[in-house]
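Tutorial handout. Part one gives the primary structure; part two gives the three-dimensional structure as tokens.
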Amino acid sequence: MALSPASLAALAALATLTPRPPTPRGHPRALASRIVVPRETALPHPAHPSRYWPRLQRVFAAEAEDRLRSMLPPDVCAADELPAEWSEDARLREELEAAGFTPFTSRDRALSLALNVGYLFRLSIEPSLVGMDDGLAGRFYGEDASEKLPLEGRVLLFHRGYGTENATGRLVLPKLDYLQESTRAAAARLSPRRPTPPPPPRAQAAVVQRSVGGLAAAIGQLERALADMLTLCLRQWQRANRRSARAISRWAARLAAPPTSRRQAARTSAPLLRASLFLPANRTSRVRSRRRASSVRSLVRGRYGAAFSQEDALAPFVFNSSAHLSVDEDFQLIDRVAIRDVLADPERSRLRDFAPQLFSVSELVEPSYGELLVVWLPSPPPPKRTIPRSIRRFAEAIEHFLPNDWCLANDLAGEATPPPPRPLQLRLFSDVPIANFEGILPGKRLVFRPADALRLDLISLLSFASAVATQRYTDLRVDIIALVSIVAVTVRSILAYRNALTRYDLLVNRFITSKLTARGVGVVQYIAREAGIQRARRADYALRELERRSDGRRALLADAPAPSEQSGANTIMDMEVQGIESSPKLHKHSLDDLMRLGIVRKRPIDNSMDDSPEFEVSAPGDIDTAIDAHWRRLLMSKADVRRNSN
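Part two.
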């Protein structure tokens, strides 16, 4: 049987469709979000390395050990922490660039705050910069860049690579907590705002009377807010029932009507079909366009109700429906599945869809940093109080009547010396969730949320109110009972907050211990060796590209800018090939390394009108000879160092 052209076209279209992967049993299909993050600058292990890769890796590893030996003397390598006189900050920054570590920016912090709102294992903490030296940015970058850096430049963060953190389970309590919070937020948005009554005139009353009056006013406002919320929920429920009844009646009318009238009724009944308890009928699409904000640092409202700083043209969150949007080549998308994504969206689904998803097994996926480096400089201790000069002169005058070295023992011999500087502190962590990056900061403090205060103080407030209510009686025994109750309530509140602080400290310390990888000298050693590995990978990648694209008639133009001094980021350059439109991404210093090894030569172009240099690759035999000659030079320099040390 012959098929028509239309049938053949339909079969061809079906053949090109990619089947959707099946959902595992017990795991409901979740609406995943996609987070826009900067692209990684570290190169992975080459899948198809060149034949020079083993020797390049050996050469750059030896050079990395030489750099490490010059940065850390042998006596320093034996210690855990860096000494106070260690001042190789500029070289450490260069090694961080070469290793592929990216500085932590204000956009990264805003993204972390936005993700923390819907994170399952969130830590309610905020950074504390007390005891941090404000001269770290100038010491590390050579200029005062504290205004351009997050955390006032007192704590520097560098991250490399991204990963995911998975949590699987029924998670009933977190789901109920999220539903409660979302319902409260929806009621707060929909409830009418009443004007705040003017404060009463200040009277000549006692402080206790003013406090009791303020408490009574707050309780009255809370009662009115609860009444408004219950009334609003009841009206929403009644309105949803009426809409459902109208939708059912219209469906019945459509089934009884002829086909022509059904098509006409579909145009009018579509808004009613989309209407539900949480979704208005005139709701627009959820696809967000890549529209640049009016201000570079404007604050916009994110999907999870948190404000983030939009410093680029892309919003931090991209949904599945907008996955077809093209992303800037300097950014990438990583998946994220939160509690809101697991549950049926209240704005899209009906109430009956919550029950099966509430008790089903769910899997949460949270983005994390592969490696996160924390650098800070503790503030020096305050100088000791100097003894007045008159007292020192008097002590010197009667020194022969005092015991031996009495003035020296009591710091009366001279001026007070300034305190010694503190050593630079380095901590390297792995697999740190982006939402909880503040947990690894050296200074942090617990932030009590309104929900925590309600949980800790609800019983205490009720007990306190009952104790105060007993004051209306004049019996002495009742007064004693009320006094004991008030004391017990006060002690219980203090102990509750102290226990909460202790539990949070234990949780944060356990979090830090599980994520800590290296510290102090170990961090410098790891970064130096990783920088050597990255240099070898970039050199091998550049050599393969040069061999593939240059044949003596076409040359590579070196027109890459210098790395930015302000950001300190790993600068990526595009190497343009004459006659070739596509351009790979190569590191700027990879050409310098190849020229230093003698593999690539630079010579002026024959055209006298163009002074731009060109590069050409040596012959395969010359490349082997150049690498072997450089390896012999490294061995000779190492032998000279050993001879001089002996």
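Part three, for discussion. The chain has a mean pLDDT of 68. The two ends are 93 Å apart (CA to CA).
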